[in-house]
Design a protein that fits this description.
291 residues; 13-stranded mixed beta sheet; single chain; alpha+beta
Amino acid sequence: MIQFAEESMRGTLRALWQECFGDSNEYVDLYFAQHEISRHTMVFIDGENPVSMLSLLPMTVVTRAGILPARYIYAVATKQSYRGRGISTKMLKAAHKHMKSIGVKLSVLVPANGPLYNFYARRGFDTAFYSGLAIVPASEILPFRGSFAISEASPDAFMQIRERAFAGRTMFVRWDGDALAYRLTETAFNGGETLLLNTGSANAVAVCHNHNGQVLVKELALDRMPFETALSLLEEKYHAQEYHLRLPMDIECPYPLRQVASGAACWYDNAAKNRVYEVGGGAPYISLVLD
């Protein structure tokens, strides 16, 4: 039987999460404390206990043809002893039916690895988002000549800068209110920082994780700030050996970008899909997924 989770199932879902993903107790508690499982988590029940789950997290897809209600499918997990029975396929079919019934226009997910894109393609998902990966040695970054400030970004400032940075795209994923605040919390929990960069006339936000001299920049949202300036300010902050950046494919970047798939979409409204792609815009963009 497939249904939405009940509060009494939290302990079982916590154990299922840890079996499938291996995250710490603290991380699982952080996630479940800030997400309503009765609204966002579907489960497959065998007997009295859930043996599979997936989350449907609210999000918005911003396009030049309009703003679309959507869901981010996350934490798809099945107990080891129940795998190979088609349970996740049944769960996805139930999720699609539910989302259509409440007017959701599309769902988005980010497969954990390349082969899983084919798995989800057979279940209605097309690869819709790509990122450009760049690796920049610190030796190639010029120092910034001028005044600047680097501080912790607030959710409100981050949202405003993201809106300006990614406007005009065919579509980009907007994380609203609590969803964006949770991503800042999760970044800090995992030892990262969400930085507001300012030079007086321009701003940027960078989501960064510093691992022994290698800085992973999970998102760089530029608001009138050139890419090279933002990179120079990050070097002022970290003095790292190199920077690994996930960027929109069409960003103005002097470094070579390696294209990788970064998200797949399943549409429930073909008329809306056609309008989005007819109007077009910049390259579709998704980031700040919970990976």
